[in-house]
Structure formats: C-alpha cells, structure tokens
Amino acid sequence: MQQDTCSNFWISTIAQWPEPRPRLEASIQADVAIVGAGFTGLWTAYYLKTLAPHLAIVVLEAQRVGHGASGRNGGWVVGNLAGLERYVGELPMERRRECCQVVADNVDDIGNVLERGSIAADFNKGGALYAAARYPDQIAIQKGYLAHLHELGHDEANCSWLDADQLAEKARFRNGYGGIYHRQVATVNPVKLVTGLAETIERLGVTIHEQSRVTLIGQHEAITEQGAVEAPIIVCATEGYAERFHDFKKHVIPVQSLVIATEPLTQDVWQEIGMSERLAFADASRLINYGHRSADGRLVFGARGSYAFGGKSKHRLAISQDDIRLRRDLLADLFPVLQDVTISHGWGGSLGLSRNFRPHGILDRESGIATAGGYAGEGVAAAHLFGRTLADLILERDSRLASMPWVFTNASHRHLIKRWEPEPLRWLAAQVITYSYAGEEALMKRNKPAPLIKPVLTKANDFLHRLSSERVSHQHRLYLCVTPSGISRYRLLCIAMKPTLSLE
C-alpha cells in the first residue's frame, strides 16, 4: 500500500509501517496459494492455518498488504449481506432466520477473534442508524426497509424502529424524523485490522509475498512476474482489483467509492451531534451517504461513488478537492454544526460488484480454483464470513457455513456468475441512473408537491431497480436503495446497470 498518509486517514493511524515483505523470486510448492492480501485472502489463510496447522499456505500480493478495498473502506462491519434477498427470498422463514443469524453473528465472531488475538483495530459494536434525516419522504423509505429486513429473517431485537425522540437520543441530525436501529453493526479501523491480521497469520506460519503480482491463475498454479506457486488449491481473493485477470473481471467489476475524514472534533461539537456510543449512520437517499465516529473523535464519511468507464480499479488513494467539498457539504446538511469543519483526509478505492448482484463463495475442485467476492461494498464483515467458509470448503468440513445458500462447490465461477455486458452499455446506464436519482432527490429536498414530475420520476427509478431482477418486490427495491455498506453505499449506482431483465 502506498504511504499516502495525506489522503487515507486509516494509514495515518499506523505509527510505523512495516518493512516490505520479500517478493516471490522462485518456483515453489504449497498446499494452498492465495492471490490477494486483503480481508478475504487473509481470513481464508487464518482459518486454514488455525484448523489445519500442517498446511503450507502462501499469500501473493501485487503491492502491499491491504492495498485494495481492505485498506480504503469506511470501516463498517455489517451484520447483513448485500443481495441476501436473492438467496433467501424463496426459502421457508425458519431457514431465512438461520441465514440471517449467521450473518448477524458474524459481527460478534470478528470481534471475538480480534480480542483473542490481541489485534488492536478500534473495533466498536455500537450498532447503526438508518435515518430519515433530511426529507419527510425518507420516513416511508426507511419503514419499507425495516419491513424488508424482517421479511428476510432479521428479528425485532436486532432491527427496530426509532421515533424522532428515540433517534435524537443516539444522534442529533438536522431533521431527524426517525429511523432504524440495527444492533448487529460495528465499526473498525480497517488498516489496523488488515495489518494486524497479516502479522497474526505470519506468526501462525503463513508466508506472505508482497510486490509479487500474479499474472496468470492456472490449474493448480499461480504465476507471478518472477516466480510461481504450484498448489492443489488456488484462491482468487482480488474482489474489485482483478483487472489483470480478465476471466474474473468479466464477472465482478470495480465500482469506485470515495471517503473523507474530518479533523478531530471538540467535545462541544460532539455534544451537539451525539453518537456517544460511536455508532454508524446512513440516511435513506438513493444517492446514499454513510459515516461513523472514529476512535479519535473524527467523523469518517463516505458518499456518492461512481463507475469508471471500462471498469477501471482505483489505485491512487487521493481524491479531488471537488470530491471532498461535495462530501463535506453533504455531511454539513446532516449536521449543520459541521458547516465550517476542516476535512483532514480524502481517499477512495474500488469495491467489487458481481453481475449476479450477490456475493459468492465458490470452490471448483476440478480446476483447483476457489474464489469469493461480489460483496458490493459490505466486504469488511462479508470477507470474514466468506474467508472462513472457503477454509471449510477446502478442508471438506461439514459445517453450518458450508451449507449456506451462497456457497457453491464442484462448479466454476464461469458458470455460476453471469458476465457483465460490454461497454459502453455499463457506463451509459450508470450515468442515466445517477442523474435520475439526483433528480428525484432534488424534488424531495424541495418538500413541495410535484403532482406530475415526482410520481413519474419515482416510478421510473423503481423501474430501474426492477431491472435487477424480474422477481424483486417493492420492499426489495427499497433495500437496493438503502443497503448499508462498509466501503460504499453506492452499490445502488450499478445495481440496475444491466440492460436486460435476465438475472438467473
């Protein structure tokens, strides 16, 4: 990861960056080779080595540990999965509740591992507020999302409605009309987590090679620019940074996400804002924003990502001053006391969006290739769940995780995940959706009747959501608008990008 401490707040919290790990400069053998030293790859290695200490495991990283989304996200650890309804929507309620319990418990599981391993990553389980915080129309959106969460199988104890007074007890927005409190959400410093996890697995005996870009993933072999690893199992854990692997990039594309951090706020300012529990928050706009209070008293805030023509991954950390100002203005709209706040950091990265609009954990034993991803911005928590799941699949463990509906064995990602449509269709669709959502939000902001325009625009945007699935319900469409993500809430930017109706 480049040492751009002027851009990425998380990097600036590391007092001393470790020396680069040696690059791979030979042909070696291992039991498992993992491509990508982000959360998915490192968690897979952690659970493999914990469950089977005798395994020789090698992790290959093109740059530095955490270079991709794992070191650039907004720090949300969400007890949910983006696209969960596509797996559980037709299951019996008892099975839905079981799946929801797995993803909810995943948050606590992460916290427990960090505590046991003494990984100091500022993990804080304060829950999250999905607030109707700017426009009255957002009340119906959030209540629809709450109904959807309950329909999925999340219980009232974990997902409940707060009225305006109850909301104000937790956070004081400019217009806090009410909102959802989701108990199973935590926040974390992702760079502390990814670097601490890397050091932990090295102590367990896992080998990490940095500056070792894999140029080809073949059957039982990963080839780098200066070496190769031969292994029965190759794990591709590149998520939104698979641009060198054309075969994977056809199925999972990068979507850019941008984040800012304020200077540390005074206690008087925090008294006006609230958030004494350091909870996370998001509002109900289709152009979603999200944030949380950091361990050192800043507000970390992300909003309004984008899709780059050609599906280019974002490697440079820094973002433009215009991008910073836009997010600062959105933050001040939620909390007027921050009107003149100083923004100390602004950075960005790329999340991975599957063409099936749902995450996946896949092991193809015939080719020896395993992969997980498509987290759509909720990867901080999901990568732990899927890394743990891949370990169970590789070790052929008959576990609860291996039985989940998002797990696939004896099949290739080429057959399980559809290919994205070619350019310029993706880029054009992203532009149409962005402007359409912005128009709808402008009407909500006016808070005035628009009997001709507003209903038409709302129906048009709902139609765009329906393109994601022929069977998606009204509540599901609302979910696609407001799903909370770790790196970005802009999953919705590309959710309706496909120009066809087919999903399966």
UniProtKB/TrEMBL annotation:
Residues 31-393 form the FAD dependent oxidoreductase domain. Keywords: Oxidoreductase. One of its GO terms (molecular function) is oxidoreductase activity. The keyword RNA-binding does not apply. GO terms for cellular component: cytoplasm. PANTHER family: FAD DEPENDENT OXIDOREDUCTASE DOMAIN-CONTAINING PROTEIN, SARCOSINE DEHYDROGENASE-RELATED. This is FAD-dependent oxidoreductase. The lineage of its organism: Bacteria, Pseudomonadati, Pseudomonadota, Gammaproteobacteria, Oceanospirillales.
